[in-house]
Amino acid sequence: MNRNENDMLEKEEIFSKVLRAGRRTYFFDVRSTKADDYYITITESKKFTEEDGSFHFKKHKIYLYKEDFTAFAEILEEMTSYVLNNKGEEVISERHQKDFKKEYISDKSSSDEEIPSTENFTDIDFDDI
């Protein structure tokens, strides 16, 4: 089987769900192995807009096989419970607050110039390292 045929086989989803979450979209797909067993792919697609208005997507994919389902689900449940138990369900990121406005920090004692918040800094993603 050549690479093109292999790529075509991977694109055949047996069962799929999509979760749209702002600039991110998550694709959950059940796929079939060469031996006709099933596995799951989870793909995160994130939209990036350029200054000229054009955009591109960055995608990250994980493959999850049946032998890892139980451990994966247990750890995911443990992690989500930990976050919700310790921080609740309310999103506390400034940019997610309905009344959020970019604020500037001003320290009149040392300088009269305004310093922009770190909200303008670039978010660096190290997922592919």
From TrEMBL:
Gene3D superfamilies: 3.10.450.700
Top-level taxon in the UniProt lineage: Bacteria
Gene Ontology molecular function, alphabetical: purine-rich negative regulatory element binding; RNA polymerase II transcription regulatory region sequence-specific DNA binding
Disordered: region residues: 103-129
Keywords associated with the record: DNA-binding
Ranges of compositional bias, category Acidic residues: 112-129
Family note: Belongs to the PUR DNA-binding protein family.
Name of the protein this chain belongs to: DNA-binding protein
Organism whose genome encodes this protein: Flavobacterium swingsii
